[in-house]
Specification:
eleven-stranded mixed beta sheet; alpha+beta; 23% helix; 26 strands; single chain
Length: 611
């Protein structure tokens, strides 16, 4: 006998998200399960430093404060709560929830999932955590838990685990699990699915978008929606944008299943409702990804303000004056942002910013001694010398890397409400690696790898020789982008110089030291043009900072989208902070702002870009 759809919502996309979201989701409409995603690479570093100070910490303390009121609401409404807020200490958070339950007089049954912490296996690591799947969550819910606290599980597992419990799916139900994983990926970043961080944000009221929820059916299909009366919007565009976020390739590898993103189909299902169907699943890989953080050293920065004329000469003078001071520093990076305008009518718009970022294993070499030396130049350097902020002490920074371990070696454990410990076996994998061959890898949603057994993705068509020769100082060279694809038989069409964003949306983000950029457009001729035009060569020409780096392109025809992975653009990852946009959140918007020749007949009216 089939069960009604599972109604599952999300109340947090990161540690620091809207505090009132848990209350809003519990009171805004019916739910069966409410999830909260608090973990990211940077969060693990933050929690690791908390644990150094106090071994009893290491979890997201915000969640406890949200529960002070939310516990009673969830109990009254029969809503189960599943969260990865346990971070590095899920047992500790589970105990804290029990203590809170006793304090506020609300009886709840609490379970937790552990076994992901592999720090002892990684020499010198601050944290090392395997990305577990949803089977431990499923076991806890089957045992009657009202609240399930986990450590490092994949973000989508917060949804696929409850779905497997609700429908009693087996580990071999790959298509159904894959559908739930895709729904979980849409929900995991909260309001990014309801109009937040959306390229066409002007088409909707996104001043306070509501958090998303999914209605998951027994066959694994789902409808993405939100509570009635909440802000933002759920459209095929907002859902497409989130599906492209932090993904790499058509295979989205996870601990429970490999979801084929090239099988995902989206259709409108009414106002603020988008249906996801057709998702196919495959065996999971034989290994689990392990996210490893380490303290990388110490960093500092000074931002100098350069105003008016001779900006380049002022920057050169300052760099020469500090050259001797920087000789003993392990890494010193200068960036000049030309935010100045000629004949500006305000002093701020007449100014550029020269940013110096220094990093070193020793705090002494990049501490106040260095920044004080910079300030000592104030009366003897370029005219108008001043800085954006007072000099500060050196700050520690972390680095992120990943490794892989056989899934069978990770002690995935569900600790049930009565204290019973249940070992969760690794699901049957695609296959074991042959001697000398790398094993297929599992990844956090957002960083799947290609299965070794599969052929490589088709190579992107190369750019024309004229394009390669001319470079892209002001976008793609004129005359590039508007021609019909070679061999199409189509007549050349009239083109206009315009930003790519007039036709396409984008979303970007980080995975360790890599960045991904998803780009999508409308179906039909616009998609045909985008697919033929935005090659890897053209992508790198439009974004010169990606030149010299490895860039992979993947096609997702059902979504009318391309996905680009830029390897190494973020160095040692977000916490090392060497780049102006350390998480690559705006890389896609930079791409959309670049100009190239677009066929006039493809450009929609302004109001037509918001779907």
């Amino acid at each position: 006998m089939s069960r009604r759809p599972l109604r599952i919502g999300n109340a947090s996309g990161f540690y620091g998200d809207r505090f009132s979201a848990l209350h809003e989701m519990l009171t805004g409409g019916p739910l069966d399960v409410l999830t909260g995603d608090y973990l990211a690479e940077l969060t693990m570093l933050i929690l690791g430093r908390d644990r150094l100070k106090n071994p009893d910490l290491g979890y997201a303390k915000t969640f406890l404060r949200q529960l002070e009121e939310g516990l009673g609401l969830a109990h009254e409404r029969g809503v189960r709560i599943v969260t990865n807020a346990g971070g590095l200490h899920p047992a500790g958070l589970a105990d804290a929830v029990r203590a809170l339950s006793a304090k506020v007089g609300v009886p709840v049954s609490v379970a937790h999932v552990e076994g992901d912490d592999l720090t002892s296996r990684e020499d010198g690591a601050l944290t090392a955590n395997a990305y577990l799947g949803g089977a431990g969550i499923t076991a806890c819910l089957r045992a009657g838990a009202d609240i399930v606290v986990t450590g490092r599980v994949t973000d989508a597992a917060l949804v696929s685990g409850p779905a497997a419990w609700w429908f009693e799916w087996a580990p071999e139900d790959h298509d159904r699990l894959a559908g739930a994983v895709v729904a979980g990926h849409v929900l995991e970043c909260g309001t990014q699915a309801t109009g937040g961080n959306y390229s066409f944000f002007t088409a909707h009221d996104v001043r306070r978008p509501g958090f998303p929820l999914a209605e998951i059916s027994e066959d694994g299909s789902a409808v993405i929606t939100k509570h009635p009366g909440t802000g933002g919007a759920v459209t095929t565009g907002t859902v497409t944008a989130q599906l492209l976020y932090e993904t790499q390739g058509v295979r989205y590898l996870g601990p429970d299943v490999t979801a084929r993103l090239d099988t995902v189909r989206l259709t409108d299902d009414g106002a603020d409702r988008v249906r996801i169907t057709g998702v196919r699943g495959e065996h999971p890989p034989a290994t689990l990804k392990v996210g490893v953080t380490r303290l990388g050293g110490w960093r500092n920065e000074v931002v100098f303000v350069l105003t008016g004329l001779d900006i380049e000469a002022k920057a050169a003078l300052l760099r020469s004056q500090l050259a001797e001071t920087l000789e003993g520093v392990a890494d010193a990076a200068w960036t000049l942002a030309r935010t100045d305008h000629a004949d500006a009518d305000t002093q701020e718009t007449a100014s550029a910013l020269l940013r110096l970022v220094v990093r070193d294993p020793s705090p002494d070499r990049v501490g106040r001694a260095l920044t004080s030396t910079a300030i000592e130049l104030a009366l003897g350097s370029y005219p108008g010398f001043h800085v954006a902020a007072p000099p500060g002490p050196a700050q520690p920074y972390g680095v992120f890397a990943s490794s892989y371990v056989p899934a069978a070696e990770v002690p995935h454990t569900a600790v049930l409400p009565d204290g019973t410990r249940v070992q969760i076996p690794a699901p049957p994998a695609a296959r074991s690696a042959s001697p000398g061959e790398p094993a297929a890898r599992s990844a956090e949603p957002g960083e799947p790898a290609t299965l070794p057994a599969e052929p490589a993705e088709p190579a992107a068509p190369s750019a024309s020789p004229a394009f390669e020769a001319r470079g892209s100082g002001g976008g793609a060279p004129e005359g590039v982008g508007g021609a019909a694809p070679a061999g199409s038989g189509a007549e050349p069409r009239e083109t206009v110089r315009a930003p790519l964003g007039a036709l396409a949306g984008a979303r970007s983000g980080d995975k360790g030291g890599d960045a991904n950029v998803g780009v999508w457009t409308r179906p039909g001729p616009a998609w045909d043009w985008l697919r033929a035009t935005l090659t890897v060569d053209r992508f790198q020409a439009l974004l010169p900072e990606t030149r010299g780096l490895t860039v992979h392109r993947h096609e997702l025809p059902n979504l009318h989208a391309l996905n680009f992975t830029v390897t190494g653009i973020l160095g040692d990852g977000v916490a090392s902070g060497h780049r102006f946009d350390p998480q690559a959140k705006a890389l896609g918007e930079w791409l959309r702002a670049r100009h190239l020749d677009i066929p006039v007949h493809l450009l929609p009216p302004p109001e037509g870009t918001g779907t």
